[in-house]
Design brief:
Blueprint: E1 3-12, E2 15-24, E3 35-41, E4 48-51, H1 53-61, E5 65-66, H2 68-77, H3 79-91, H4 96-182
Parallel strand pairs: 1-5
Antiparallel strand pairs: 1-2, 2-3, 3-4
Amino acid sequence: MATKIRLQRNGRKGYAFYSIVIADARAPRDGRFTEKIGTYNPNTNPATVDLNFERALHWVLVGAQPTDTVRNILSREGVYMKKHLLGGVAKGAFDEAQAEAKFNAWKENKQSGLAALKAKEEEAKKAEAKARLEAEKKVNEEIAKKVAEKKAAETAAKAEAEAAANAEAAPAEEAATEAPAEA
């Protein structure tokens, strides 16, 4: 029996997530499987992988062939690194304690790299938000300046109109007050 480690599609249209399964190569993609060893959700950023590491390692060691995508997932999770180190132990290159130490060092290095990447993304997001806020403040200041200029122009126009009305009304009042005095 040719055994494959592959993805089994779940989810709705346009929002797929996958189960990582061990299945006979002849079985349909979403059909019968031997064992479910994890899940893979590509819809999150970064993609979420929940994997039973020990079972995945067991199946890789007994010869199950992963598909390309699953091989990449297993490699990122460290299954192939662990297999490589166990091969070195079997050949006598080093003992299990050294292999475990190398694997833990690799895992720590990977975790620190991911943390640094996440921090860099967060910093970029904050910088972008700050730049957007500064641009918005600048636009608001320009709008406020235009509104103030417009109000000042309206106020000046009203003052001129009142002054003109007062100037026209003053000679008419003088004429009105002088006319009764002459009579």
